[in-house]
Amino acid sequence: MNEVRSLGLHNIYGYEVWNEPENNSWHGKYVASMESSNSYVDFFVNVPTAKTYTMTIGYANGSGSNATQNLCYNGLPCSTVTYPPTEGWGIFNTVNVNVNLTTGDNIIRLASL
Q: What is the pTM of this model?
């Protein structure tokens, strides 16, 4: 769990943290296996100013079809994030989403639908 907390990830359920060589864009670690209906990961984020921030989510989706997750933060209604297919589970891409964060501590959750 300390390894996960050092990534800024907390309150994690139904996940795997993978270790890979450090010569990649995700710095050797990523969360995987969030397919079960109750899987989620929380990110604790502290920001200096209340405003809309762009959050970039790195992902791999080798399923051949769109994958989706709920994006929830600060008790607001959830929205859906869609991850288009990549060319394999080892091929990563990014999606950008806007999140309206408040000054100070915020909790952002990505969860299976």
A: 0.73
